[in-house]
Design goal:
With about 300 residues, this protein is of the alpha/beta class. It has 11 helices and 6 strands. A 4-stranded parallel beta sheet has the order 2-1-3-4, sandwiched between helices. Helix 1 crosses helix 8 and helix 4 packs parallel to helix 5. It is globular. The termini are far apart.
Length: about 300
């Protein structure tokens, strides 16, 4: 097995087995907070010595959660609650649910009754995020998250730790942008493999995932760029990780050369400024974000 094949399989293993990753970290004695789509202050969680762990639902049959939602509501929110009620998130210290759409607002309130064993921490974002009052509102929301996490986990918060976490997350943003651009020249990497690179980021410590992506970048650069006659497409939406759909693209010689997916590249478009108060900078990062339906 070549090193390239080996690391691609590692991404796939992590992306397809979040429960194993969760169990691994819990056995190591690490604290974990589940982070619901689309945007949560992961840098704050990381700065407090807690692992942010993606909770984007799953392709699963809905049973218990049907008692809490109308049938037409977003399947992501329904499946998150379903997994919580089945105990799939057991062991996490809390779950952070942002107020970025009506469905998520309902999820937070229903979580308090459906999954009483895992504390719910709301993250309320402003409707008008671009102006100064909007940024101040975001900052107040982050301070609320810090307060709740401190009470729940017992872990402290410091601005110096946040500065370090911002550097770590900015570096991860940069390598994810680089790998997305680089994969355009390597059509032998399947759409399923590309998806696993992005999806695995939600179930890893950021330092660990950055190291893996850097290794992949170096391995790809050791090979010549590939000339491909594949059909090239750009994807757009919230999530694009359905394995059956990705198999169809691969079977029909289609290559994803870019994405506008909330679960993928939208996460990495904007870096946090590093000069000045880190909590203010993180709040202004949210102000700087754009081109995503849940931001409006």
């Amino acid at each position: 097995m070549t090193e390239l094949v080996k690391i691609l399989k590692e991404f796939e293993s992590i992306a397809s087995s979040p429960e194993k990753q969760l169990d691994k970290y819990l056995k190591q004695g690490k604290k974990i907070v589940a982070c619901v789509p689309v945007y949560t202050p992961e840098e704050v969680i990381h700065a407090m010595g807690i692992i942010p762990f993606g909770a984007w639902g799953a392709d699963t049959e809905l049973e218990q959660s049907k008692s809490y939602f109308p049938a037409f509501i977003c399947s992501i929110t329904q499946s998150i609650l379903e997994l919580g009620m089945r105990g799939k998130y057991d062991g996490v210290s809390a779950i952070i649910i942002p107020s970025l759409c009506d469905s998520l607002k309902c999820l937070g309130e229903n979580w308090k009754y459906g999954v009483k064993s895992i504390p719910f921490i709301p993250m309320t974002y402003p409707q008008n995020r671009k102006n100064k009052p909007g940024a101040e509102f975001t900052k107040a929301g982050y301070e609320r998250v810090i307060s709740d996490l401190t009470k729940i986990s017992g872990n402290g918060f410091s601005k110096s730790d946040l500065e370090n976490s911002i550097q770590i997350y900015n570096e991860h943003n940069q390598v994810m942008r680089e790998i997305s651009n680089l994969l355009v020249d390597y059509s032998s990497i399947s759409t399923k493999e590309r998806s696993a690179i992005f999806k695995s980021a939600y179930f890893c410590e950021k330092e660990e995932h950055t190291k893996m992506v850097k290794e992949l970048i170096e391995l790809l650069k050791q090979n010549p760029k590939e000339i491909s006659k594949k059909i090239k497409i750009v994807t757009s939406g919230i999530v694009f990780d359905n394995r059956n759909l990705l198999d169809i693209l691969d079977a029909n010689n289609i290559q994803i050369v870019g994405d506008d997916i909330a679960h993928e590249s939208r996460q990495y478009r904007v870096d946090t400024r590093t000069q000045g108060d880190p909590l203010v900078n993180l709040s202004e990062k949210f102000s700087d974000m754009d081109n995503c339906s849940v931001l409006f």
